[in-house]
Specification:
Blueprint: H1 3-17, H2 19-35, H3 39-58, H4 61-65, H5 74-91, H6 95-122, H7 128-150, E1 173-175, E2 190-191, E3 194-195, H8 198-216, H9 218-228, H10 230-235, H11 240-266, E4 268-270, H12 274-288, H13 298-323, H14 326-363
Antiparallel strand pairs: 1-4, 2-3
Helix pairs in contact: 2-13, 3-8, 3-11, 3-12, 3-13, 5-6, 5-7, 5-11, 5-12, 6-7, 6-11, 9-11, 12-13, 12-14, 13-14
């Protein structure tokens, strides 16, 4: 193979590997001037959304490392976090102590749900993403049954602001004013009119250090070996199924904490479907950052959150100034969140096919 052919092949491989972030960067470059937002406003919005969503997206990294793909089952952890938030709201525990208490309450539930999810996914090897997606729908029904009929009847809820007028069931919207931005405003810092949630970024930084450290541990190395080839890992004496379950448990617990951080920033909770949006948007953001179902890094997380939410912010106004219809931008936002997952999965299948062809050419000595 000549140098020119090799360069073209590498360029095509690079473009295919980074097609999704390149598309989003191009769209953002067009939409930002049209939206007429000031740079200060966009910087403030991106900082807020980075602090709000990064923890949730980071929770997806460990299952990918273990070869289990995108963990759509992270919504189970988000549900556990929401149950903790409902309880601390009823008990009127405010501020950082309230947020920590919600995490403590939710942790055993998240561990159980993660273990259950891991066991089920071990029964469906090779179809983990579809299985976890359907499992999320199933557990959503269980969650709604508990919140709609269990709270107030089986589990006592005293606050009249939470309980429906019939005496049981939680209202559609839960006001989280008791913990709203308690972490974001814990260390106030404003530079050039831009407010920076320092404490939240410190928590995210600790999480990133944990991920880097975890990859170097024995368990992290085992997960990487399982993710590369389960049969080889099993031959090497690694307990494959146990390792896969642990990866899902860790991801579910971290998603639980991520949902609590997310909702403390928002300040209100859509009781019956906040977790659905969190899971879908987190996965879409990770894919926008250039991750695939087999490989994801910390830079993919932050790049994805910025690009994904940049389009969310600018697309409605760009649609309004471009054709006079802001609603078109809203439709575009919904299209982006679902369509990007489909595009990323198609590109992943395409890349795998091309990688196989490259490997075959290399073996024949043509690469």
């Amino acid at each position: 193979m000549t140098k020119k052919t090799s360069f073209q092949d590498n360029l095509i491989h690079f473009l295919i590997s980074n097609a999704v972030p390149i598309i989003f960067i191009a769209l953002s470059a067009v939409a930002i001037p049209i939206s007429r937002f000031s740079p200060q406003y966009l910087v403030q919005e991106m900082l807020v959304r980075l602090a709000r969503d990064s923890f949730l997206v980071l929770s997806l990294l460990i299952p990918i490392m273990a070869g289990m793909g995108l963990n759509f089952g992270m919504v189970l952890g988000a549900m556990a976090g929401e149950i903790g938030l409902i309880l601390i709201t009823d008990w009127n525990v405010v501020g950082i102590p309230g947020m920590l208490l919600a995490m403590i309450i939710s942790t055993p539930l998240a561990i159980f749900l993660g273990w259950m999810c891991g066991v089920i996914l071990n029964k469906a090897k090779g179809r983990e993403m579809v299985t976890s997606f359907i499992l999320g729908f199933f557990m959503n029904g269980v969650y709604q049954l508990i919140v709609l009929y269990g709270f107030g009847s089986v589990f006592p809820i005293k606050s009249p602001d939470l309980v429906l007028s019939r005496g049981f069931g939680i209202r559609n919207v839960t006001n989280l004013e008791n913990i709203r931005k308690c972490l974001d405003n814990f260390i106030p810092l404003t530079i050039g009119g831009v407010s920076i949630p320092v404490a939240t970024f410190l928590v995210i930084a600790v999480f990133c250090i944990f991920v880097v450290w975890f990859r170097k541990t024995k368990l992290g190395q085992d997960m990487r070996a399982v993710g590369q080839d389960m049969e080889v890992a099993d031959s090497a004496g690694i307990p494959v199924e146990r390792t896969r379950i642990i990866s899902i448990v860790i991801s579910t617990v971290l998603a639980c904490y991520g949902q609590i951080l997310f909702l403390q920033n928002i300040g209100t909770m859509n009781t019956y479907n906040s977790h659905e949006q969190a899971g879908m948007f987190a996965i879409a953001a990770l894919l926008v950052g250039g991750a695939s179902v087999t490989k994801a890094t910390i830079p993919n997380v932050f790049l994805g959150v910025v690009l994904f939410h940049l389009m969310f912010v600018v697309s409605p106004m760009a649609g309004k100034y471009l054709i006079g219809e802001a609603q078109l931008g809203e439709y575009f936002r919904v299209f982006v969140s679902y369509g990007i997952i489909a595009i990323a999965l198609v590109l992943h299948a395409w890349r795998r096919q091309r990688d196989k062809e490259r490997a075959r050419r290399a073996l024949r000595g043509n690469a």
